[in-house]
UniProtKB/TrEMBL annotation:
Biological process (GO), any one: FAD biosynthetic process
NCBIfam families: cyt_tran_rel (TIGR00125), PRK05627.1-3 (NF004160), PRK05627.1-5 (NF004162), ribF (TIGR00083)
PANTHER family hit by this protein: RIBOFLAVIN KINASE, RIBOFLAVIN KINASE/FMN ADENYLYLTRANSFERASE
Function: Catalyzes the phosphorylation of riboflavin to FMN followed by the adenylation of FMN to FAD.
SMART domains: Flavokinase
Molecular functions per Gene Ontology: ATP binding; FMN adenylyltransferase activity; riboflavin kinase activity
Upper classification of the organism: Bacteria, Pseudomonadati, Balneolota, Balneolia, Balneolales
Enzyme class: transferase
Entry's EC annotation: 2.7.1.26, 2.7.7.2
Entry keyword annotation includes Magnesium: no
Name of the protein described by the UniProt record: Riboflavin biosynthesis protein
Catalytically driven reaction(s): FMN + ATP + H(+) = FAD + diphosphate; riboflavin + ATP = FMN + ADP + H(+)
Positions of the Riboflavin kinase domain: 186-312
Domain of life: Bacteria
Amino acid sequence: MQMTSLTYLDDVIHNPATAITVGTFDGVHLGHRTLISKLVEKAREINGRSVLVTFNPHPREVLHGGHNTVGLLTTLEERAEILHQSGVDQMVVIPFDRDFSLLSSEEFIKDILFRKIGIAEFIIGYDHQFGKNREGTIKTVEQLSPALGYNVHLIQAHEVAHHTVSSTLIRKALVDEGDVKLARTMLGRPYPLSGMVVHGDKKGRMLGFPTANLKIEETRKVIPRKGVYAVEVLLDDKVYKGMLNIGIRPTVTNSKELRIEVNMFDFFDDIYGRQLRVRFYDKIRDEKKFDGLDALRAQLHQDKADCIQLFKTLS
């Protein structure tokens, strides 16, 4: 089957031959992908479809009255792309609002999953909770299975370096430490950011390191901690190595505005107004204030050398 990206609940066609799973799946990390592999496998076994049900916005934003904006590891579009690559047939998006949050876990399974979508195989993570007050658990799913006629498959935790992989842990690694290497390990791929190239003040060009200034498209995306990072940049289906700075550039300005600037190695074209996608591989250093432009320029040369060496070790 061809995956239908971002299918909303009202547009779903009922099909009892469905392997289904439910969750936010932000990041689609290695723990999620273990579950997704089982989802695709079970759909194949029953000659049916694999359906992943997710929510927008993030449930915590609604349940906490908008005072707890959750930084996103993946936009809906990014999630759909990863799921398509993983072989999932359909991603069903349920608009999450106050009314929906009052639905009991039993009503959710019976009225939404069973009657509206269809279930033959239910794949669920070990810690998944759902329904009003998060009352629904694996026990709820198992208790309803005889009456509704579906099979239940429990997926255990996935660990990396003695840590249970979770979206919360990945967000914390990015925001608190800028640990994009740990994030890359837990995601199973580099953490991405996408944005449009906008005009800056050309300070980088003056230093011999012209930069593309990025305006991030999705304002809720998690931005890693301030610092210099080794990155790959995707433009027109080509991949360029580069280094990216997130910060306020204290050596060249007194402004407190956060900037995201990327220097693409051996690239000098005019790309204002173009869309770039950046993949983070490792953090090179924290942002710092230098004594002057010469000291900053020397450090940028060292940063570039460190990035090039890093990519050699990865190849």
